[in-house]
């Protein structure tokens, strides 16, 4: 029987003893990191000491980057580079049409949507020919049998083509993962320039935040890319621009 | 400029042409060269194998020898041994010795870096007809940051054509690694064979490098494989005249 | 001696070597391409290392902060001094939850504590769900690379393995093989009671753990089962949420050559309400297992900055020839050659610090600038000073003689002259079996100097 409280006390004590030993020993200087480069001015001296660890890296833009043309185009370019699809639409009606087209093209029949109101509205606008599953009460096997999952994304990251899904906003974790097709609805006003911007804006109230960059992939066999291993093979972003 | 030659034991006994060449080139560019015959080995084999007290005692010796010289610079035809001198400082606990080690290291330069960076010379008046490729010896490249200097010198050699090594490339280790080459000879030679394959693919007359140790390794395998490609020290090429 | 024997076996395995050459070369190329997309690579490396150094110097404080914040968010933090304690904690939780099957996402730390064997001993079946780990588990092997566990296997070998174990048609179509694994593992996910994952970064400020992956199996492992256990070494903690940015710039680019891996899961505690998705409980196991001792000196402390990207493996000329299994330890390659002796003692791994040509390629590619060659040299000195491993009597004698001779220039010259006469040079066999030995020059440089060169000065 382990007393994890004892373990905690002992580990912390061992850490403090080691750090005290390091601080006390003149050995700190003697065994100090051997400079990787011995020659040349401005070589590695202070490579680890002088930088301000908390310093914000290069110019990330301030609040609300909004939906400048640049951000949208770099986001869509990155999405293509990571193997995700993207359709830019204006307004909900167009989004509903686009969603139906995406699902039809992918031959998706069983569709499951998150509890986000926008998703629910778009799904109810879908015509016949689709089976709309409800996430509540869906078994694991039932979920595994779905063809497509539809969620929103709370943020998009332009520099990486990444979607940010926050658990506090909707039930998006399994729908964005288990079905072979994931359609994500994202407002263009929620595009961030950089990963750093996105990290600063994420809702810390979420117990799970998922960053998604393209479809599920593996290169575990001979480093050969296979798309769609445990997660979706297709990630389609419906980027909603506001109606004028 | 007065230069004290740090010959290194390997060049002294196994590759004297490198040291003789270094003296010739340094004199040609106007340096007065002196050589202190008390020097032997810098202690690197002991240091790299874990024998620190032995390495330390040889380090002290060499520091004293070079301290006794008032030359403007200490120059060596070896990136590896120069790097070892630059590693002396952390070997000592004593602040006095650390300072002395530091002072000697500051005066010590690898040959190509000395010519190009310190003297600003790229054309040393050499002539060497043939197709050459350069092997970046690891310690010169990664400990001292020497990359462009030898290439600049070789490009100015009359009659010489410099080509870069095909993959795995000039920067990949030749597998020597000091005692590693005899502790794990099979691994060492497996690494070496990739290098030698690349050298043969390059279709060159000679592979040139800045360390006698790598050249022994590469040259020894080239010769065993019956290759006509020669292994040459940079100083040998630079010392050649028509 | 084990390393030597393993290495020879690896060198004799043509399939292994061609798989290794292809994979490590490709990894290297992808990394270089990905680096080109990073705006300030050197700056990012420096910032990341500074964050790690700051954390390690105050590790006690950051661990307590992490623990308090994770528990406030609903996780339960367990501390484990060693592998046995960590296995005990995880095994007991699994038993108490009545788990029969445990799905696992890739975790080197779980390999370190040999968790699978410990679970199996309790009658609980561990199922690796990362494709590479799954392959290795089916084959009854250990991972041979930190990032790509099955890097040593060809598609043909994997096809034969799947035909044997999963009953599929033999195939070397990689997509078919991956699909077969997906089908088989979906069944296991459907029945899993408990998930075990590793942790890439743990944020003290928020109590968040971050897990990177590409396949989605870690997301399934952490969201489908009722209980998700996260296992992490104590060095995984970083101070602030915003610090994640720099590490997310470095890790995927260094590891797989991606700008970002497909998925990052940032998990802060268990789910809050019954109707939420995800695990209802999140035990986090903090493992020491020798790490705290490494804090005692800067040279060893830097080992704890490692973010397990595997770049040093791909860059290492030794690893590229012999692969991961030859190292005989969970952590292979250059970082393994320094971590293994430090974490588990020099006694059984005294050869590993010597398994390197000290070329320094590992240091160049390390995203957090760990000076691995300096660590190797430090450990070699420890081996000699503590007389760890084999006796090395001849070696000791040789280096004493060497130091004595080299301290006396006249003696040095006489010895070399004698060797020249006898045409010997030690150690012969290991060199000359494969390489011609350059003979000692007929006249040494110092002889040339004395007889000729010195006088040219005067001239």
Short description:
The complex is a heterotrimer of chains A (244), B (242) and C (459). With 244 residues, chain A is an alpha/beta fold.
Describe this structure in words.
- The complex is a heterotrimer of chains A (244), B (242) and C (459).
- Chain A has 244 residues and is α/β, with parallel strands linked by helices.
- Chain A has helices at 4-24, 27-30, 69-81, 92-105, 117-124, 140-144, 195-201, and strands at residues 85-90, 110-113, 131-133, 148-152, 155-157, 162-166, 181-187, 191-192, 208-212, 217-218, 226-227, 234-241.
- Chain A has a six-stranded parallel β-sheet, with helices on both faces.
- Chain B is an alpha/beta fold and 242 residues long.
- In chain B, helix 4 packs across helix 6 (95-107) and helix 7 (111-118) packs across helix 9 (148-155).
- The mean pLDDT of chain B is 97.
- Chain C has 459 residues and is α/β, with parallel strands linked by helices.
- Chain C is built from 22 helices and ten strands.
- Chain C has helices at 2-11, 14-36, 41-57, 59-72, 83-96, 108-112, 115-121, 131-138, 155-166, 174-191, 217-223, 244-255, 298-301, 311-315, 317-322, 333-344, 361-365, 372-386, 393-406, 409-422, 428-432, 445-458, and strands spanning 75-80, 101-104, 125-128, 194-197, 201-203, 208-213, 227-233, 237-238, 263-268, 282-287.
- In chain C, the strands form two sheets. Chain C has a six-stranded parallel β-sheet with strand order 1-10-7-4-2-3, with helices on both faces. In chain C, strands 8-5-6-9 form a four-stranded mixed β-sheet.
- The radius of gyration of chain C is 26 Å and the shape is globular.
- The model of chain C has no long low-confidence stretch (mean pLDDT 95).
- The chains are: A alpha/beta (244), B alpha/beta (242), C alpha/beta (459).
- Chains in contact: A-B, A-C, B-C.
- Strand 9 (208-212) of chain A pairs antiparallel with strand 9 of chain C, so a sheet runs across the interface.
